[in-house]
Every structure is written in structure tokens, then in C-alpha cells.
């Protein structure tokens, strides 16, 4: 659901740009509590994975397709504030390098995909976790439900924005029905992808899943008579022992992202996504303006310059990883005293 230039008028685009700027600025500050030298590379990998999967449009009906938005997925894996930054990096790279999403609409896309889906996905996930058993495996269905709800809500926010500043006069009832109908179907695909991804990470490293923190049941020991007693607290030496390396997950996840962007992207659906399909059906697709970088060789993921989509995808993954890791390492660097104070809170 990448909004192009021209769907919304200038005042509305400026307003969504202000919302996006404020959201990113707040996320830069709040993400300090979620990031450190260990989690920053994981956040970079999450951004790259979202970029790769967003290239894989899947069919959702006759003549239309959908793709992952990734807000709920990123929030569950690395935390909601870091997720806003992840999606913002992805959207910035897509807009500047691949002409995917308008430049004047960048604030709109960050507001819809980078903020709305993150907030809704995270809130719904936490609400579902509150009624499920307190164990890491519960994050899987909770994240899937959060992802499912986040997509149609983002679609409804777009309808609201179009009602305020759309560049075409049309029936808002028909627009609402079309956007909600198609994006509910897309939300099902979002839920499946999110659930499978979170399930894979929870299965191998539940300690690295942000939403699973604090969900481990207290360790108990069984007495000879069959009763259970709390296990003793670990000794200082055991508590200070080095944690398991994140390298295997980083390498494995990076290879998966490269394979998705470099190989699987060739098989993505070529049908228009939900927003483009609705815009054509409702008669406002013609209001879209050409992208300022539409003649760039990588525009439309290499199609303009004759570059294979897989090559463009691999380049995009590399750019997102480098930009993301640099940003997240910078954000995560804080004095030790500040980090200890945050841990106490």
C-alpha cells in the first residue's frame, strides 16, 4: 500500500509529513531503551527482511495482489519504537532508489505503514498476549492476529486521509468498502507471513524476540514426592556468563533475506496491489504523478534500467542492512549509567 505522489493534496501531504517526522523523532529517542550493541544488528536484519518480503506480491483475488507491510512483525521482533525506525528506513530506501512510493507522499507512507501498522499491530499483540498462557509460543498467534488487524486499519486511515485531502471526488462509502474488503484479504496473508516468521525465530532463539520478554515461566524443580519448588537463583558467576551468540541467526536470516529478494522475487505476482487496484476501480488512479526518480535505473526494482529484479533486490537488501545497522548502532549507544537507569525502570 505504497501511496504515490498525487493521490493527496499538498496540505494533507505536509500534515502527514509532520506526523511522520514527529513519530520518527520520538522513536529515535524511545528506541534507545530497546537497542544495544547486541540487538542493533538484529534490527538491521529485521529491516532487510521486511524489505525483501515486501517485494513478494502474492495474489489475493482476480487481478490484484498484496504484500507484507511488516509493522506488526517488526514490533514483535525488535520492539515498537525500533520497528518504526525499521519501516522508515525501508520506505526511504524504496522511495529514493526504487521509485516505490512517492517522495511527497513519503510522510504519508511512513504514517500508514511505518506508524499505523506498528502501533495497531503491537497494541493488538499485547492485548492478545494478556489472555494467552504466559509462554514464548503464545507470541506466534498473538503476532498473527496483530498483523491481521493492522492492515485493514491502515487502509481505513488512508480512506480518512483521502476524505480530508483526496485529489478526486468520489463516494467515500464505495472507497471504504473496497479498501477494507481487499485489505482484509491482504491482512490474512500478512498474518500468515508474520506468524510463520515469528514462529521460526521463537523456535530457535525466543530470548531475542522482544514481545516474548518476561513470558518464560519461572524455573521449577521437582522433589522426590512429586511436588514442585522454585529453582534457586543463579549464582553471580552464572548470571554473568556470556550469552549465546547471535551470529548464527544473523547469518541465517541474512541468507533468507537475500534468497527472497534475489530469487523468489522473480515469481512475485505482477498484478497491482490493493491500493492501486482500488484506485483504478474507483477512478482516481489518474491523479497519481510520475515519480521524480522514475527514470532511475533501479526504478520499479530494475525494470526501467533493464536490471534483473533479483539483482535490484539484493542491492536493496544490502543498502537497508548497512543503513539500518549504522542507524541502530548509533541510536543504541548510550552511557552505561543511562542504560542501567533504563533497566531499573
UniProtKB/TrEMBL annotation:
One cellular component (GO) term of this entry: plasma membrane
Protein location: Cell membrane
Highest taxon listed in the record's lineage: Bacteria
UniProt domain PDGLE: residue ranges: 248-332
Keyword Cell division: no
InterPro entries attached to this UniProt entry: CbiM/NikMN, PDGLE_dom
Keywords: Cell membrane, Membrane, Transmembrane, Transmembrane helix, Transport
PANTHER family per record: METAL TRANSPORT PROTEIN HI_1621-RELATED (PTHR34229:SF1)
Membrane topology: Multi-pass membrane protein
Name assigned to this protein: Cobalt ABC transporter permease
Amino acid at each position: 500500500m505504497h501511496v504515490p505522489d498525487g493521490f493527496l493534496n499538498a496540505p494533507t501531504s505536509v500534515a502527514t509529513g509532520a506526523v511522520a517526522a514527529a513519530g520518527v523523532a520520538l522513536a529515535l529517542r524511545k528506541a534507545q531503551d530497546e537497542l544495544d550493541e547486541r540487538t542493533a544488528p538484529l534490527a538491521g536484519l529485521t529491516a532487510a527482511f521486511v524489505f525483501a518480503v515486501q517485494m513478494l506480491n502474492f495474489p489475493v483475488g482476480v487481478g490484484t495482489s498484496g504484500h507484507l507491510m511488516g509493522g506488526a512483525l517488526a514490533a514483535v521482533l525488535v520492539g515498537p519504537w525500533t520497528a518504526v525506525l525499521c519501516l522508515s528506513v525501508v520506505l526511504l530506501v524504496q522511495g529514493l532508489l526504487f521509485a516505490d512510493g512517492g517522495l511527497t507522499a513519503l510522510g504519508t507512507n511512513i504514517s500508514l505503514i511505518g506508524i499505523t501498522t506498528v502501533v495497531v499491530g503491537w497494541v493488538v499483540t499485547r492485548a492478545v498476549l494478556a489472555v494467552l498462557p504466559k509462554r514464548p509460543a503464545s507470541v506466534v498467534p498473538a503476532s498473527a492476529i496483530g498483523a491481521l488487524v493492522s492492515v485493514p486499519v491502515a487502509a481505513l486511515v488512508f480512506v480518512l486521509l483521502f476524505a480530508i485531502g483526496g485529489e478526486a471526488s468520489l463516494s467515500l462509502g464505495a472507497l471504504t468498502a473496497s479498501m477494507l474488503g481487499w485489505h482484509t484479504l491482504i491482512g490474512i496473508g500478512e498474518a500468515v507471513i508474520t506468524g510463520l516468521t515469528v514462529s521460526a525465530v521463537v523456535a530457535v532463539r525466543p530470548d531475542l524476540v522482544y514481545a516474548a520478554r518476561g513470558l518464560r515461566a519461572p524455573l521449577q524443580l521437582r522433589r522426590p514426592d512429586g511436588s514442585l519448588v522454585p529453582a534457586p537463583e543463579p549464582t553471580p558467576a552464572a548470571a554473568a556468563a556470556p550469552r549465546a551468540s547471535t551470529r548464527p541467526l544473523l547469518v541465517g536470516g541474512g541468507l533468507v533475506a537475500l534468497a527472497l529478494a534475489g530469487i523468489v522475487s522473480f515469481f512475485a505476482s505482477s498484478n497491482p496491489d490493493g491500493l492501486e487496484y482500488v484506485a483504478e476501480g474507483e477512478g482516481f488512479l489518474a491523479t497519481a504523478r510520475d515519480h521524480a526518480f522514475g527514470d532511475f535505473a533501479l526504478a520499479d526494482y530494475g525494470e526501467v534500467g533493464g536490471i534483473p529484479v533479483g539483482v535490484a533486490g539484493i542491492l536493496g537488501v544490502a543498502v537497508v542492512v548497512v543503513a539500518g545497522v549504522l542507524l541502530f548502532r548509533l541510536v543504541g549507544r548510550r552511557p552505561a549509567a543511562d542504560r542501567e537507569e533504563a533497566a531499573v525502570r
